[in-house]
Amino acid sequence: MTSIGVGLIGTGYMGKCHALAWNAVKPVFGEGPRPRLVHLAEVSPELAARRAEEFGFERSTSDWRELVADPEVEVVSVTTPNAFHAEMAIAALEAGKHVWCEKPMAVTLGDAERMAAVARASGKVTALGYNYIQNPVIRHIRRLLEEGAIGEVNHVRFEMDEDFMADPEALFYWKSEASSGFGALDDFGVHPLSLMQFLFGGVRRVMAQLAMPYADRPSRDGGRRKVETYDIASVLLELRNGASGVMALDRSAWGRKGRIAMQVFGSKGTIAYDQERMNEFQLFTASDRASEQGFRTILTAPVHAPYERFIPAPGHGLGFNELKIIECHELLKAIGGEAAQIVGFEQGLEIERAVHAMAQSHREQKWVGV
Ligand SMILES: NC(=O)c1ccc[n+]([C@@H]2O[C@H](COP(=O)([O-])OP(=O)(O)OC[C@H]3O[C@@H](n4cnc5c(N)ncnc54)[C@H](O)[C@@H]3O)[C@@H](O)[C@H]2O)c1
Fold first, then answer.
1. 135 lines ligand 1 (CB under 6 A)
2. pLDDT tens, 237-290?
3. Are both 3-131 and 133-318+343-369 of the same fold?
4. Is residue 103 within 6 Å of ligand 1 at its C-beta?
5. Smallest Cα–Cα separation from 52: which of 94, 114, 21, 8?
6. Which of 323, 322, 321, 279 is nearest to 13 (CA)?
7. Domain boundaries, the chain
8. What's the rounded Cα separation, in Å, for the pair 73 and 288?
9. How much is the pLDDT for 1?
């Protein structure tokens, strides 16, 4: 396969990110098919045409079904709000396309199950937007864990905080609607859950408490609208590897910009990482001489693959958009029949099950198995 036809639905924050990845993946990685940017869909013909021109797509439409029916489109990026993921991904799979869908997979567990079933029946490749597992730092942490660098992992702690919903007077938008899901759980929680799946094999049972810091927000019509989602979640976890865990999520945490803080405690050491400083991690090993024990900061470098594909010099750093380019490359590897590091719809369903178990736990105030 020398080229692959790409369709992109949605051109907001994530749509642009996917477009950058489709444009950059060949120059960065060299190998694999050259993406041909064929068709782009947005809500209006004007916006679709403008974005197609900016992103380099050949044609555009305000009807995403036209894009899905386009025989020259072989893989579809779904980057619309959560409520559309299931319908669009299923239609694309049924039309014989591979699908790269943003997280969360779906709003209801039933929809996620249908997506996984259709993907299975289609034989096409699916990938969800769990970009944080693509960080060379996270890949290296997995290697260290496999090598036993910190011994047996017995406890993990994850915090994910941002402040884009911290202002009580911020306008009501789709993320406060129940049609987007539970709130912090499926907006944020799925990311730490993808890391837990990647690093520790997933979650066995959960106990959750959800909270809503603001009951209503100003709406575009000048009135106020009742908030329907929970911006805060606190969760106790039992991982499949037997370790205990804590996950704390907050979309209205003033001052936190892109925090995904992870601490992994083992019998021989500790690893700490924070997405706000995504080009480094901290390693403490108890085998160091007591007089020099302490956390070491390790900066990313060409030895941490695939950093070297972007930059030959150590310490210069990758950014969020580079994670998406790596994710895109992994998707293309999977489409080419190679082993790849992506969260397909099958594994994504496990993450959705954990999210829905957490919501059930909050409702029933008890531990729930995943
Ligand atoms: N992987 C990540 O780290 C990450 C980060 C942010 C958002 N997301 C996910 O990406 C998705 C989109 O979020 P966003 O922040 O980019 O939202 P956004 O509001 O910035 O963009 C969504 C775009 O979809 C378009 N759209 C809506 N309905 C459409 C339709 N029927 N046909 C065509 N286009 C349509 C909108 O006009 C808009 O341009 C969400 O599911 C979100 O959870 C993932």
1. no
2. 999 999 999 999 999 999 999 999 999 999 999 999 999 999 999 999 999 999
3. no
4. yes
5. 8
6. 321
7. 3-131, 133-318+343-369
8. 55
9. 81
CA–centroid distance, 286 to ligand 1, in Å, is 45
What pLDDT, in 10s, does the model give residues 83-92? Answer: 999 999 999 9
Look up the CATH number of domain 133-318+343-369.
Answer: 3.30.360.10
Tokens (6 digits) for 37: 């940017």
CA 197-229-11 angle, to 5 degrees, is 70
Give the CA distances from residue 71 to residues 66, 76, 336, in Å, rounded to whole numbers and listed in that order.
10, 12, 19
> Cα(16) to centroid of ligand 1, in Å?
10
Whether the CB of 77 sits within 6 Å of ligand 1: no
The total number of residues shown for the chain amounts to 370
| Residues 24-43: tens digit of each pLDDT | 999 999 999 999 999 999 99
**Cβ pair 34, 26 in contact under 8 A:** yes
Count of C-beta atoms within a 10 Å radius of residue 26: 17
Answer yes or no: is the C-beta of 183 below 6 A from any ligand 1 atom.
no
Task: Give me the torsion for CA of 56, 59, 65, 69, rounded to 10°.
Answer: -100
Is the CB of residue 9 below 6 angstroms from any atom belonging to ligand 1?
yes
In CATH terms, is domain 3-131 a member of 3.10.180.10? Answer: no
CA of 10 to the centre of ligand 1 (A): 6
